[in-house]
Design brief:
The chain is α/β, with parallel strands linked by helices. It has a single domain, classed as 3-Layer(aba) Sandwich (UDP-N-acetylmuramoyl-L-alanine:D-glutamate ligase), CATH 3.40.1190. The chain has eleven helices and 14 strands. Strand 7 and strand 8 form a beta hairpin.
Amino acid sequence: MKYDVCVFGGCALDQMYYLDQNGQISRQPNILIPGGKGSNQAVAASRAGAITTIITRIGKDSVGENILENLIYNNVSTNNVEMIEGIDNDYAKIYIDDRTKENKIERHVGATESFDVNMISTYQDVLLNSKIVVGQMKIPKEVSVALIDFCYEHHIPLIITPCRPEKLSIHEKENQELLDKITYITANKKECETIFHTENIEQCVEKYPNKLIVTLGENGLIYNNGERNIHIDAIHTPHIEDTTGAGDTFCGNLAYCLSHGYSLEDAIVRSQYASAMKITKKTAQEGMPYKEELDQFLAQQ
């Protein structure tokens, strides 16, 4: 089968805690819902309109079943999901400040750590039959390296979201070559600073034109189009409910757009609007827009 977008990454159960106006938090999570970076990106891409699959591993238990059902519900192909006995599922404790709407995340790794390099050869036909691949640095580094090498050797466009940015630190010589092999990198400001060991974001995007896209929260984003640095202002929304998953929404929509022939600039702008829609609703996935919703939102601008 051919896919528009193939996400190679982990899934998790999100435990959402909402701090009230006094900064108090409940002892039990307010919401339990499937999430995780791989799952989030796959759901975002699918809702954006992409024929999407995910290559992942999850523990074979009730949490894993919940994660699997959520992927199916969101029309993500689960043909390449491995359910394994005896491994724990990832989960994240996400604390949302009701005053600022900012989040703090405590991640607990389980199944994601079980990824191994053999998965590249096992699913090579899936990768080869995908228009674009999305990966993260959250899985063991040797698996990320193998994925980057495979996509580079076979000319498959690859988006990396470096949620473990230290694994791409330019202080390690081999990472310079890895950065050159990656087609697109979508990083937030902190991730960019960690990778390049500088607060000069302008200089970073100049060095990696049409590759490095740095999101700046309320200050929008910046990238270089090969001629100059382009700064795009943030999309203002009536209210902000929850910023969790905004970056994954951006990435999933970017993958959809690039797999459908959008220019990089147009893909970035559309994805930024999708991210703006997401933050108006709670949880990582609830606000991720469907294609028709995003089209309507854009028509109103």
